[in-house]
Design goal:
Radius of gyration of chain B: 21 Å
Helix content of chain A: over 70%
Number of helices of chain A: 8
CATH topology of the largest domain in chain B: Rossmann fold
Number of strands of chain B: 14
Distance between the termini of chain A: 23 Å
Number of domains of chain A: 1
CATH architecture of the largest domain in chain B: 3-Layer(aba) Sandwich
Radius of gyration of chain A: 18 Å
Shape of chain A: globular
Strand content of chain A: under 5%
Oligomer: heterodimer
Strand order of the largest sheet of chain B: 6-7-8-3-9-10
Number of helices of chain B: 11
CATH class of the largest domain in chain B: Alpha Beta
Structural class of chain B: alpha/beta
Largest sheet of chain A: none
Number of domains of chain B: 2
CATH superfamily of the largest domain in chain B: P-loop containing nucleotide triphosphate hydrolases
């Protein structure tokens, strides 16, 4: 059931999905060309957050446009919890696709740097934090009111990210714990945070009156 | 005969509207027409039954099981036709079906294809290009392809031309002929119910006005026409609604014998469900 609902999200934004695939391939190359001094992890993060949030916004927009279609889904045996979980699954699927496109990019453009587990885990943790906060708020307030949150994320990320990287370089977590251990802790924390976020979103959505 | 649907003490409150103590039942083999004017509470009741809106209190039982506790199992046994706009317009019918079908454990692709063929629908056609009638037919194909035992329809005939409405009623008749089924059919176009409904449930201002077997209901109400001189304080009380002009009066009564005895020079005619519905609405009293 979860798979079919994730597929549904891709179906309703199929017009934009291919475009976003191209964008996820091109963003790292664009960042590399414009600001080659930035590490590859920054372009990877920008590519991830841009692809996930753009597609998520397109899905929300379509669901806002056809609220009765969502009602129909909830009137079928699909559980509301599965519908909520599929939204997170949708984001995770895009995350994996972006990993793949970055891997391909880095194969052809070695200047992007090594595609490491550490880089994936830090980006996954960051994305999980943003999605984990954003989705429950969207379930609570609706698409209209949370659009600004999305715009802020998209606008602020390219400016804020280099600052975070600088701050992170100053601390260098990997000197405190081994790299693999650090990655595992980051991935585990992400999963815990996502599960907590799903739980909150389900609680909110279960009490929502649909149109 | 066992009840397919039992709604008892259903309450739901909004800021400006509330469903108050809604009670009704639909026995097996029954097509129930759920009537009322726009805003009377029909859609809110159906949404509460389907779990789309959380009820404030009350009980909803399907096939003897509490909906709240057996939601997943029971929804497998319900077919749903919501009013217009419940599909993603950019998708084809086939894509929409691929979203809905996996939700049902007893989905029958064969039944679905048969319905599409019967309705002359092309599965590759985009939903945005479908007429209102075709959308309803598609909704019916989805609703009837998983061996549903209860069909819930919210205003399915609204905005349809007479031919498609007639076809829809034929489909319902065929569906009921399979046996062991029930239909809850909300509408404000009561002429459709004159043809197929077994039971009529009327709601007004969020309260159930009556639940009656259709034939008994039509038998109990009569339209009375006569001279206004025949009206006095006592005879007026016999009417549910009364319209007076300089040429005479027209009223609806369910005290036909008493009216006949008290008012000799009158014309009595059969009433329709619409006449009865309007007479029962407070605004109909003049």
């Amino acid at each position: 059931m979860l798979f079919h609902l994730i597929k549904k999200d891709f179906l309703i934004v199929k017009k934009y999905a291919f475009l976003m695939l191209l964008v996820s391939i091109l963003i790292p190359l664009f960042v590399l060309t414009v600001t080659p001094e930035l590490p590859g992890s920054v372009s990877f993060f920008i590519s991830e957050i841009f692809s996930i949030f753009m597609l998520l916004q397109f899905v929300s927009m379509k669901e806002y446009q056809y609220p009765k279609a969502t009602s129909l889904l909830c009137a079928t045996p699909y559980r509301r919890s599965t519908i909520v979980a599929s939204k997170y699954g949708f984001c995770m699927f895009i995350f994996l696709v972006c990993c793949l496109t970055y891997l391909i990019d880095s194969f052809f453009f070695p200047d992007l740097g090594r595609f490491s587990l550490e880089m994936i885990s830090i980006t996954f943790l960051s994305i999980s934090l943003v999605i984990g906060i954003y989705l429950p708020i969207q379930y609570k307030l609706g698409y209209e009111k949370t659009r600004f949150f999305f715009i802020i994320i998209i606008m602020v990320t390219p400016f804020l990210l280099p600052q975070i990287i600088q701050f992170n370089d100053g601390i260098d977590m990997t000197s405190l714990v081994p790299s693999v251990m650090f990655s595992l802790i980051a991935l585990f924390s992400s999963l815990i945070f996502l599960l907590l976020s799903i739980y909150i979103s389900v609680k909110i959505y279960n009490h929502k009156d649909l149109v | 005969m066992k009840n397919i649907l039992e709604v008892s003490g259903l309450n739901k409150s909004y800021k400006d509207f509330s469903l108050s103590d809604v009670n009704f039942t639909i026995p097996e083999g029954c097509i129930a027409g759920y009537i009322g004017v726009n805003g009377a509470g029909k859609t809110t009741t159906l949404r509460s039954i389907l779990g789309l809106t959380k009820k404030t209190s009350g009980s909803i039982k399907l096939f003897g099981l509490e909906m709240e506790r057996h939601e997943h199992e029971l929804k497998n046994r319900i077919g749903i036709v919501l009013d217009d706009g419940c599909f993603y317009d950019e998708l084809t019918m086939s894509e929409m079906k691929n979203i809905i079908a996996p939700a049902y454990t007893s989905w029958s692709e064969q039944d679905y294809m048969n319905y599409l063929s019967r309705f002359s629908l092309n599965p590759k056609q985009k939903i945005s290009t479908l007429s209102k009638g075709m959308r309803i037919k598609f909704a019916l194909a989805l609703a009837l392809s998983h061996k549903a035992e209860l069909l819930i329809m919210d205003e399915p005939t609204s905005g349809l031309d007479p031919l498609i409405r007639s076809q829809l009623l034929d489909i319902l008749t065929d569906y009921m002929n399979e046996g062991g089924k029930g239909v809850l059919f909300s509408t404000h176009i009561t002429s459709d119910l004159d043809k197929i409904a077994d039971t009529i449930i009327m709601i007004n201002n969020g309260k159930i006005v009556f639940q009656e077997v259709k034939d008994a209901l039509l038998d109990s109400f009569r339209i009375v026409k006569g001279d206004t001189k025949a009206l006095n304080e006592d005879t007026r009380k016999l009417f549910l609604s009364l319209t007076e002009t300089q040429f005479g009066f027209t009223g609806i009564t369910n005290h036909t014998l008493e009216v006949q005895n008290c008012m000799p020079n009158i014309v009595i005619e059969k009433s329709t469900i619409e006449d009865i519905m309007l007479a029962n609405i407070n605004g109909g009293k003049e």
